[in-house]
Write a structure and sequence with these properties.
662 residues, Substrate Binding Domain Of Dnak, Chain:A, Domain 2, Rossmann fold, 3 domains, 27 helices, 48% helix, 10% strand
Length: 662
């Protein structure tokens, strides 16, 4: 069982609360992923790690050695073909996960527009904006009528067979031209995933560059299709996030309340539980068993969703899901889809805690299944909470860490960044662009994706600190965002403690952290829009590939992370990972690490060491600055009255006549 003193893999655990918990006898009785990792006692398969193990047909499995004639596949498939197929299937699987998530959100959006859910259309301004993009009439129409047409149009794009996706027109014009010339515009969201799986079937597409064209198309169906639809419609329905202070820590569990943790990725369930937790009947039932009420806490990306919109605290990230249960203080962990480890049901065996699965796609041995019905969302949520309440009196020994809880500021949608930088009257990315041009901000670094049991979450911290120390503004999503929040980088005060002079000056002026929490893993589409807005604002080139910005998923674990990375590369943004399963194929590896740049203006990069990883990101940013001619630090000039008058006479269109600021 997990003993912090004897566990080799536990060197990767950070956070006072987690360490505190693992030193308790209660937690030492629990067998976690760290134990299983230690018990394996073997290194990863070199063929699998290099991408050259082929299991597509039953003549193998074939282990391929690049350059050795006798070590190709039985069918003759080379290392480059096999690695490209394997990489393509990773992107297809990640895209499928985002797509199924998005489809459920669109269906929930339609049901809400019809009045069939307890939710409502909250962000009418964004509804109108999205309707305009889809060519939907908004004049003199009720918001629900507009929402219903928007939802139906969005749903149709999943099964669309011809044409292109509507959201592609949001990209910079030059970007759209590149995609058209390369022949990678997605025709329909589901179609691209299906075609990718077909083309990588035995004996179909066997040319790695041609395979990568469909990989590019599939990834765009994710980033500019499914994920963007999900994020935008979720904002319309539940409200676009705005900055708020919140807590990320195991210590958010309550001794005197029914603790219900929500784990997974689909916010429809979590939002319904939030509403039901305030229901008079539910509160009365909780008090009847001796609790003060329901304490909801998030885990993984569902945690990010309710953290961003409601300020509901996050108990733990992906690598902490077992730790949350090891406290013995959770009455129920309610799960839906993605990143839920089967071990959670074993952790709670013999304890009062129940694992409640809620989605027919994702059942688990030894868990209880209560199907979440979208057309009876409120009743489903109350049923789940009643089950949790019944467990409260069964609670045995428990331990809730009492260490300092990590204070974070979250809620940075691209609209929020726009507002914070320019103020109510001058909402604009102009200040961001200007501060990149003048060198106060060197560029933008995105830290996204997962956490990993093999690596310390110090990796995220070290990379982020190196970036902000060098005046790179960091945007974070997913479990990476939670890891950075636990380390105190999502407080405005962190700019003073860690940031370089230029970035610190900007952050202190605006009152924002140097690391911005932008949402869950599906919300990386927000970053695509932010980059597009920077292009549209002017001064930093005319497509995304020219912006001094770079992405990273330094501890990627999920196939979704590779799909995200690929849609950024296809969109023109350089991306660095800690590793990729391509090293066993020389030509293919060289193509995605260098050759893709000729096609899309960006490529992949790989670096394990966190400091070198950060410096590789900075080098990519500096390359963009050099190309734009803004690599030299601009001297600050004290302005006299005449210079001010001249500036006022050159006011930018749409900037208004106010004075920035809130």
């Amino acid at each position: 069982m997990t003993d912090i003193k004897g566990c080799q893999s536990c060197d990767s655990i950070t956070g006072d609360s987690t360490l505190d918990l693992l030193n308790q006898d209660l937690a030492k009785q629990v067998r976690t992923a760290y134990d299983r990792l230690d018990d394996r006692g073997m290194s990863a398969c070199l063929f699998g790690s290099g991408g050259t193990c082929c299991r597509i047909c039953n003549m193998g499995p074939c282990q391929i050695i690049d350059g050795v004639e006798s070590m190709v596949g039985v069918c003759g498939a080379t290392a480059d073909t096999v690695a490209a197929r394997n990489f393509a299937r990773i992107v297809a699987a990640g895209t499928a996960a985002h797509t199924d998530h998005a489809r459920e959100m669109v269906r929930g959006f339609i049901a809400t527009a019809k009045g069939e859910t307890p939710h409502e259309i909250k962000d009418v301004a964004k509804l109108h904006k999205m309707a305009t993009i889809f060519g939907i009439e908004i004049e003199d129409r009720d918001k629900n009528e507009i929402a219903l047409e928007l939802g139906e149009r969005a749903l149709a794009e999943f099964g669309q067979q011809e044409g292109t996706l509507t959201m592609l027109k949001r990209a910079p014009e030059k970007q759209q031209k590149i995609w058209k010339e390369m022949g990678v515009e997605p025709r329909g969201i589901d179609r691209e995933v299906v075609e990718m799986m077909h083309r990588t079937h035995m004996g179909v597409d066997q040319e790695y560059k041609n395979i990568m064209k469909q990989v590019a198309r599939t990834s765009l169906a994710d980033g500019w299709g499914a994920s963007m639809l999900s994020t935008e419609l979720t904002d319309i329905m539940f409200g676009t996030p705005v900055p708020k202070r919140a807590i990320v820590d195991l210590g958010v569990l309550r001794e005197d309340m029914v603790n219900v943790t929500v784990h997974g990725h689909e916010p429809l369930l979590a939002e319904s539980l939030c509403l039901a937790a305030d229901d008079a009947e539910i509160i009365a039932l909780a008090k009847k068993v001796g609790a003060k009420g329901i304490n909801l806490a998030g885990v993984c990306c569902t945690g990010n969703e309710i953290l961003m919109r409601r300020g509901i605290p996050v108990a733990g990230s992906f690598i902490q899901q077992e730790m949350v249960l090891a406290t013995g203080a959770v009455e129920a962990m309610v799960v839906d889809v993605q990143c839920i480890m089967q071990s959670v049901a074993q952790i709670v065996k013999g304890k009062h805690t129940d694992i409640i699965t809620t989605n027919y796609r994702a059942k688990m041995p030894d868990a209880i299944h209560i199907q979440f019905e979208e057309d009876a969302a409120y009743e489903s949520a109350k049923k789940i909470l009643k089950h949790a309440i019944a467990n409260f009196k069964k609670r045995g020994d428990f331990y809730i860490p009492k260490n300092k809880k990590f204070d974070v500021v979250v809620g940075f949608s691209h609209e929020t960044i726009n507002y914070m930088l320019g103020g109510r009257f001058r909402q604009s990315y102009r200040p961001l662009n200007d501060n990149i041009i003048n060198g106060r901000i060197r560029g933008i670094g995105a830290l996204v994706g997962c956490e990993h049991y093999k690596y310390s979450d110090d990796v995220h911290f070290k990379i982020a600190v190196e970036l902000i120390k060098n005046n790179v503004l960091v945007l974070a999503t997913g479990c990476a965002a939670q890891a950075l929040g636990r380390r105190g980088l999502m407080r405005p005060e962190a700019a003073t403690e860690y940031a370089g002079d230029g970035l610190r000056e900007v952050c202190e002026t605006v009152g924002m952290p140097p690391v911005l929490h932008v949402g869950s893993c599906v919300d990386n589409s927000r970053l695509l829009i932010a980059l597009t807005e920077m292009v549209n604002e002017g001064g930093l080139g005319d497509d995304i590939s020219q912006i001094p910005a770079v992405g990273s998923a330094p501890l990627w674990m999920s196939e979704k992370a590779v799909a995200i990375g690929q849609y950024f590369v296809t969109s023109g943004a350089h991306v660095v990972f800690q590793d990729l399963p391509v090293t066993g194929a020389k030509k293919f590896s060289q193509y995605i690490l260098e050759g893709l740049k000729e096609d899309y203006g960006a490529c992949w990069g790989v670096e394990k060491d966190p400091i070198k990883h950060a410096r590789a990101m900075i080098a990519a940013i500096d390359e963009k600055r050099e190309a734009l001619g803004i690599n030299k630090k601009q001297e600050r000039v004290l302005m006299d009255m005449q210079m001010r008058r001249d500036l006022e006479g050159q006011a930018l269109p749409g900037m208004g006549c106010g004075h920035g600021g809130n």
